[in-house]
Amino acid sequence: MNFNEELERIKSLIDSELRKIVQNKDCFQRRILESMEYSLFTGGKRLRPVMAIKSYEMFNNNIDEIIPFAIAIEMIHTYSLIHDDLPAMDNDDFRRGKPTNHKVFGDAMAILAGDGLLNLAFETALDFIDNNAKDMNDYKKYTRALKEISKYSGIYGMIGGQVVDLLLSHDTVTNEKLLFMYTAKTAALIQSALVSGAIIGGANDEEIELIRNFGLNLGLAYQIRDDILDIDKDSNIKKLTYLTFYDINKGKEAVEKYSNNAISCLKKLRNRDTEFFETLTRKLIDRII
What share of the chain in percent tops pLDDT 70? Predict the structure, then answer.
């Protein structure tokens, strides 16, 4: 199976599992489920849950045990987008060509839908642990993975990056702050997917750290590539990006540097099939949209 076919296979599996989560709408809280489903299915790439599953598959082939964690990460990612789009945050009217959640369901329901997705993410993972952990080793690896997801999505990860993003201005921004923001806001959730997949798959500590560093470098390359693609739009709204400090050629050099660092981490994983991630890295940094 080639890369694109494998990507579509995993994405279809993720979509199927996510639909199961929000399919029961015969209840008083039907409206919030509709709001959650709306944002879950607005054409996302499913990169983070795909990464979780493929990271797991480098070490194990029973993907049933990684799926709940993978879809939990996608729910966390989706909640963050709903809240990012709100008037008090980025105030966006469209995402992926469709009206943002608050434009369809109102601000209050959008806030609750984001809250619901965040909470449901942990309900989903914990329900799996409660029903499927067979012994203490299972409990340890599942809770270790969930701890990583919690950390990377919280104030020391994604939310922390969003805070820095909100507080940054042209007067206070530095290259160091910007790279911290990218590390926390963009790379962190990618790292959570890769690291949790490796932990549950049975990777050793050295392998986990290599995968953690792969995720960091991939996340930075991915974000700076976004800055390059969005240079005209960002310039019009005076958005602070990597290109606030450097010209586009320096940006391209940074993408190349971080992507090479990412692939170097993969190469150090002995006797593991890293082809999928090497191809994914190249496709992400070469993308034109």
Answer: 99
